[in-house]
């Protein structure tokens, strides 16, 4: 997906755009909001303004799909704004921060290099002067009294030049150390940036990262006209287990489940912790029936493991999962996909747990 041609950073009309055209576009966006009885907001205006302009085909296709199914709502417009604009804003801010850090590091490195070179050159000059001064002192043994004051002065200068040379050497070492520290700081910043998208306990993607990846996966599925499925997963009776064996054992179970699920997925799939004992897996290029098979594979893999208290050796039983499965429907907002997968999850839990249920099993109400 490409950002809006007119203004990739925000989606708002540019001051230099053709005024009558921009005005017609803006009025059409406002009229559509009124026609749909959707409360106006800057984000919703941006979505419809760019849709009316036709500069973003992917956005227009998404809007048209929602309209064709009578699903163009306030929530749908807000999610389209997040999908097509917020991500570009975040990425641009991240790129700009990275560029600034890069420029700063380069400038400091240049300064460090120049200062280091100056220190070396000055040290060499001082060393040469020191040698010349000693030679002058040694050439005057016949008339030592005549050169006594000069020798004393030269001795003082030599002492000071040695001190200066030592100071320059220490400064050079400190400058080099500062350069290394800046590189370490930059590497640490990169690490923090990566870790910001991970769950601190399990090491898999966190909820924020899940939201971003799901939006991107939906955009890709629409662009490539490929299927996309979602699993919503809940650890059965986790609260009872937690109360019986303590939070530390509960945390260990969460980490184990995350690890076992990662063992079952492909590199393009995303395993995330949705919250508490609930997990989710995004399955690109996967239809509903294949996603149900994957869910059962995960369920069997996890339930085949025994939970053992390493301290006491006690067998704490097995872990079972309830899983809901849904497939993305073109044009719908991500919240609807999550909602259907969640409904399927509750159907699995209501059917006795340790089960997989798909959206096709959800009862329809007349």
Class from secondary-structure proportions: alpha+beta
What's the arrangement of strands in the largest beta sheet?
2-3-1-6-7
Looking at the structure, the CATH topology of the largest domain is Alpha-Beta Plaits
**Shape estimate:** flat
What kind of sheet is the major sheet? 5 strands, mixed
Taken in chain order, the helices and strands follow as: HHHHHHEHHEEHEEEHE
What do you see in this structure?
The structure is a single chain. With 366 residues, the chain is of the alpha+beta class. It has 2 domains: 92-195; 207-361, Reverse transcriptase/Diguanylate cyclase domain (Alpha-Beta Plaits), CATH 3.30.70. The chain is 63% helix and 10% strand. The chain is built from 10 helices and 7 strands. The chain has helices at 19-35, 42-53, 57-68, 74-138, 148-195, 207-224, 238-245, 247-264, 288-303, 334-350; strands at residues 228-235, 270-275, 278-284, 306-308, 315-318, 321-327, 356-358. The strands form 2 sheets. It has a 5-stranded mixed β-sheet with strand order 2-3-1-6-7, with helices on both faces. A two-stranded antiparallel ribbon has the order 4-5. Strand 4 (306-308) and strand 5 (315-318) form a beta hairpin. The longest helix has 65 residues, at 74-138. The radius of gyration is 34 Å and the shape is flat. Residues 1-10 and 129-133 have low confidence and may be disordered.
């Amino acid at each position: 997906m490409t950002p809006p041609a007119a203004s990739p950073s925000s989606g708002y009309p540019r001051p230099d755009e053709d005024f009558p055209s921009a005005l017609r576009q803006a009025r059409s966006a406002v009229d559509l909001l009124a026609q749909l009885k959707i409360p106006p907001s800057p984000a919703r205006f941006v979505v419809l303004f760019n849709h009316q302009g036709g500069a973003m085909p992917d956005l227009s296709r998404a809007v048209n799909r929602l309209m064709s199914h009578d699903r163009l709502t306030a929530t749908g417009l807000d999610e389209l704004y997040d999908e097509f604009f917020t991500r570009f804003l975040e990425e641009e801010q991240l790129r700009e921060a990275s560029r600034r850090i890069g420029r700063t590091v380069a400038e400091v490195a240049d300064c460090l290099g120049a200062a280091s070179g100056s220190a070396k050159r000055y040290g060499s000059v001082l060393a040469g002067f020191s040698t010349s001064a000693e030679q002058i002192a040694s050439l005057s043994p016949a008339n030592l009294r005549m050169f006594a004051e000069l020798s004393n002065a030269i001795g003082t200068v030599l002492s000071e030049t040695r001190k200066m040379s030592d100071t320059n050497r220490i400064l050079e070492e400190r400058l080099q150390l500062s350069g290394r520290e800046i590189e370490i700081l930059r590497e640490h910043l990169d690490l923090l940036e990566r870790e910001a998208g991970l769950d601190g306990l399990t090491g898999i993607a966190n909820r924020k990262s899940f939201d971003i990846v799901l939006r991107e996966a939906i955009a890709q599925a629409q662009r490539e006209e490929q299927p996309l499925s979602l699993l919503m997963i809940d650890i059965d009776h986790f609260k009872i287990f937690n109360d019986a064996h303590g939070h530390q054992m509960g945390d260990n179970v969460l980490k184990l489940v995350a690890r076992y699920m990662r063992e079952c997925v492909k590199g393009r799939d995303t395993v995330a912790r949705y919250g508490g004992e609930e997990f989710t897996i995004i399955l690109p290029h996967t239809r509903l029936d294949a996603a149900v098979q994957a869910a059962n594979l995960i369920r069997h893999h996890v339930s085949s493991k025994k939970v053992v208290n390493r301290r006491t050796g006690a067998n704490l039983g097995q872990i079972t999962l309830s899983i809901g499965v849904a497939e993305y429907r073109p044009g719908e907002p991500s919240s609807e996909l999550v909602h259907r997968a969640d409904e399927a999850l509750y159907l699995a839990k209501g059917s006795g747990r340790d089960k997989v249920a798909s959206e096709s099993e959800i009862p329809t109400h007349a």
